[in-house]
Amino acid sequence: MEDGRQLVVKIPNPNAGPAHYTTASEVATMQFAREKLNIPVPKVLAYCSRGGESKLGAEYIVMEKAPGIELGRIWDDLKAREKLAIVKQVASITCNLARFQFPCYGALYRRQDISFESQVIDDDFAVGPTVGRAWFDDRRGDVDVPRGPWNSAECVMEALVQRETACLEKFRTFPQDCQQGIFGGPGCYHPSHKAKLSVLQDFLKIHRHIIPHSKGVAGGVIWHNDLHTDNIFVDADNPSQITSIIDWQGVPIYPMFLACQHPSLIEYDGPKLDGFVQPTLPDNFDSFDPQARKRAKDLFAAQSFWLSYEIEVQRAIPELLQAFRYKDSLPGQILGMIGSIYDDGEPYVQSLLADISEESTWKQVVGANETGHPKVPCPLHYSKEEISHQQVEYSKWQKDVERKARVIDEIGVYPGWNGAVSPHEYDEVAKRLSVSKQNFLLRESANEQEKALWEKLWPFQDAVIR
């Protein structure tokens, strides 16, 4: 522009989410984060969430270009103290997100963009239907289920089950690219509608007892789930200073125990230290070879950043740290996974449900009465035969997950990879993929018939990665 400012015009991808709602909610979320929560977010200058009313013939958002440079371009070159300063700022940003709790759940909108299905927050904002990608990806957008707003955490969890159930009742197949294992092979786990529906039904028998009732942990929050180095901008001249956070599309308002997770920036492979224990280098560090020293120092740095983030959170919003801890608990794991049963995970969740149904465990969840028994009897009861069958199915599922993890490791891509690859990496990844597939077929096939079946089940078909 004439004043030197640079602008960005964003037109949503057709598969980004529901028309109108996705753009309208993104605008409101950015405005709210910037104006109400004091988070550095690009300023929205103009937008149109109804493509039919736009001169461009499409929805759009005009916003200021994020100042600075992407953190991903320089992160590996930063000094430890600079990285630590950034981690502390990210902690402050996430605490600001968690500090404001909404009275209901769904997604945020400007009042002028939402009508009868909304609950008013103030003169400018209201809560309406969710635009979270989990409600629309993998054909979930094709089922007719309520998408909010909801008045309680219980209603949110019940809606997740209703959505997964509707998908299972409507579709014959499951989203293969979202599955953690390679299923359906000889002697392997075979996903079924019956098993998935059974898990969902069992969950509904206990969900009211395992949902946390603490207002802080169950309160509705907006949460940025992609705080990685490409969505964080820093000052080019002072790279330890965050200048902007981008990518606010599809942000739902969820209970804190469901929404909040540690930022991707500080996630790492390796052991997490309990509590606030200071990380240390191994006692025999000086005897390590250069590669082992580097691995030890990298782990030490990652654990230090993780600890620093948690200390900052504990000081500012203790409830947020409680939510992190709750997600790792047995009830928290069940609540966190029940919304993906249509995709995968039912043997694991079934094993968790069996664990929580044991009297000693259930008593920890609901408390004990004066006789030492659970205050509320557990509604779940499994026979020895049912437990045995569940364990067999879970064991098969685990082996299938390990099988896919080995393939992922051989290809050299990240866990959960769905076949997507950048153009400049395509040839190299395709070559490694071909080698991995041949090794897989040789390793798993006892005869030509099995080889043909594994060929069919191979999760990374050409049509997926191109």
TrEMBL record:
<dbReference type="Pfam" id="PF01636">
    <property type="entry name" value="APH"/>
</dbReference>
<dbReference type="GO" id="GO:0016301">
    <property type="term" value="F:kinase activity"/>
</dbReference>
<dbReference type="InterPro" id="IPR011009">
    <property type="entry name" value="Kinase-like_dom_sf"/>
</dbReference>
<dbReference type="GO" id="GO:0005739">
    <property type="term" value="C:mitochondrion"/>
</dbReference>
<protein>
    <submittedName>
        <fullName>Kinase-like domain-containing protein</fullName>
    </submittedName>
</protein>
<dbReference type="InterPro" id="IPR002575">
    <property type="entry name" value="Aminoglycoside_PTrfase"/>
</dbReference>
<keyword id="KW-0418">Kinase</keyword>
<feature type="domain" description="Aminoglycoside phosphotransferase">
    <location>
        <begin position="3"/>
        <end position="120"/>
    </location>
</feature>
<keyword id="KW-0808">Transferase</keyword>
<feature type="domain" description="Aminoglycoside phosphotransferase">
    <location>
        <begin position="195"/>
        <end position="251"/>
    </location>
</feature>
<dbReference type="InterPro" id="IPR051035">
    <property type="entry name" value="Mito_inheritance_9"/>
</dbReference>
